[in-house]
Amino acid sequence: MEIIKRLVSPKKYSLKCPFLMTPVGICVHNTSNDASAENEISYMTGNSLATSFHYAVDDKEVIQGIPENRNAFHAGDGSFGDGNRKYIGVEICYSKSGGEKFIQAEKNAAAFIASKLKEYGWDISHVKKHQDFSGKYCPHRTLDMGWQRFLDMIQNELNKEEGMTKEERIEFNKLKKKVDKFTKVYKYWKDLPKWALRPMYAAYKAKLFVGSSPSNLNVTYDMIRTVVYDARLARLIGVINFKDDAEDETKADILKELGIE
Ligand SMILES: [Zn+2]
What we know:
Elements: E1 3-5, H1 13-16, E2 25-30, H2 37-46, E3 55-57, E4 62-64, H3 82-86, E5 87-92, H4 100-120, E6 127-129, H5 130-134, H6 140-145, H7 147-160, H8 166-183, E7 185-186, H9 194-205, E8 219-220, H10 221-236, H11 251-258
Parallel strand pairs: 1-4, 2-5, 2-6, 3-5
Antiparallel strand pairs: 3-4, 7-8
């Protein structure tokens, strides 16, 4: 399953995720809402409330709003609580009305959580519910339908792949992450790493790479590195020019400056 990153602006770290975190498990929620994952994340990252969570999962996709190495405020157990300081918060969408969309969102969440357990080398005991930390009846619809049933869904996903020891699994996932990074296709300008935006755009304007347009970028990480290298070379000999990005700039700032949607 592809995980889409729509991370909160670092300018909001002090509000949404002020503490560095080494996660120890997953905390499961239901949104009590009927909005998509994309809308849940954009609402969460856009508002001025401290409430935050790492992931929202719906019937189609998983969207990340907070980096996993930072805390999020989702468990209702205060600034020093384990839930808010050590657990990755996962919201399952469409729980208010339930139905097909929720059923599929729960399935996707089970597969996603299983993939996280594998990535970290955790077993099922690392999956907690919001209720465990603050007593709130959350994830409400998942609890109504049976918590053990949901844990079994995750366990079934875990059982699908056998034949690897825990150490091999961790090693395999490290390699997979590297391969994924280098083979991932970046479709849109807004998906590019911040450091690549200005040099890539200058190179694009100067037609240093062809066959792409702002609406249809489709480059891999390797290609990005190559184009940025070429752009720097072109700047050195005075053919093109662009600024270097600054620490306090966000991707959104640079996209706006370049006039890219
Ligand atoms: Zn909750």
